[in-house]
Amino acid sequence: VPCPFQGHINPMFQLGTILHSKGFSITIAHTLFNFPNPSDHPDFDFLPISDGVSKEEFTENFAAFVSSLNVHCEIPFQQALLRMIQNQDSHDDLPCIIYDGLMYFAEAVAHHLKLPSINLRAFSATYFLLYHIYPRLKEEGYIPVKDYMREDKTPVLQSLKLKNVFESMPQSARDAMLEHRAALTDSLKRSSAIIVNTMDFLEQEILTNIQKLFSAPIFTIGPFHKLAPTISSTSIFQEDATCISWLNKQVPKSVIYVSFGSMASMNENELHETAWGLANSEQPFLWVIRPGLVQGVDWLKLLPEGFKERIGERGCIVKWAPQKEVLAHVAVGGFWSHCGWNSTLESICEGIPMLCRPFFGDQLLNVRYVCDVWKVGLELDSELDRGKIEIAVRKLMVDTEGEDIRQRAMEFKKKVDHCLGESGSSLECLNELTEKILSV
């Protein structure tokens, strides 16, 4: 049961592909909002769920939209599941329901029907832990952060200072944590297992602390996109593969790839500062300008006057790109990212250093780990300025100041490769998960 947003659809479909390769039959129960195309995934069966929500609700308030999904989907999901169970062959048992953590209605249905459930966390383990300790931190007086506490370490998240965790997190994000926490925690307590799309070496201390909170075993089988056999695109946007031909003409490690994900937005001035910062850096760039990135402005009219003439063939601009293929391309040497978890993992897997400018949610925590803990990226100011962008791009890509970051990114790639090896932690966890599903 995936949550119907790009950053959640991808890992769930990747996990489904991984488990299908292990011999399981997969049925995707999906909402009508952002629904997938079944013909793109012939190995899966599909079970549509009436959701009773509109796109307008989503754009107004994400937390309220998730709450609405959970209210409206529970009964239709239970009815659809009962029909599926009644129609299936007697030998084809339903071993378990795997649900995105935000779709906690699915666990409630599983509990009611006495079916085992497994919780998939589409965020980092660190954000997962923060979600569940946030109320405690508030009760104990750590939040709001007082001046004399700003340099103190965050309890449980010892790698980060209190100021770095909470001062960049808007009140709306904190409110969302409190709004969903009770339902999320209840569903986790009843789940048979928890799957996290991460790797042990990235978040080992955090994973240990999470295991102390929940009795269900935790399986770290990330990165999903590397473990999944060939999978059809799960993008809700049309990918423009012509950018690969452009990349083929570029010098190795010379291109900075720029993409802010499927949900972020910016104003016209921010886009213009980004454009001129890229142009002035003199680095080749591949830039994804998604329709809707700037609200209310036609895509073709977004770019500032004189920009195209300035960059010539040095830049390639598309509406959406096949990101995993782009990051794996030999020409790409840097990624200006919003720090969504999928993008962060995909960049780390390819040894690509990151230029980070988060927008909301878990991105605000991910950037702290990318830049302060793992040290595989540089952070941009939230207020975009063409001069600062130019300097940051050059530092990340070519200046000697960025050499340590580039080298460290390659070291992380080697660690990922080890996790995916025959005796690596991710493959071992996958085998253990397979046994767990068969035993529940």
TrEMBL record:
<dbReference type="GO" id="GO:0080043">
    <property type="term" value="F:quercetin 3-O-glucosyltransferase activity"/>
</dbReference>
<dbReference type="Pfam" id="PF00201">
    <property type="entry name" value="UDPGT"/>
</dbReference>
<comment type="similarity">
    <text>Belongs to the UDP-glycosyltransferase family.</text>
</comment>
<protein>
    <submittedName>
        <fullName>UDPGT domain-containing protein</fullName>
    </submittedName>
</protein>
<dbReference type="GO" id="GO:0080044">
    <property type="term" value="F:quercetin 7-O-glucosyltransferase activity"/>
</dbReference>
<keyword id="KW-0808">Transferase</keyword>
<dbReference type="InterPro" id="IPR002213">
    <property type="entry name" value="UDP_glucos_trans"/>
</dbReference>
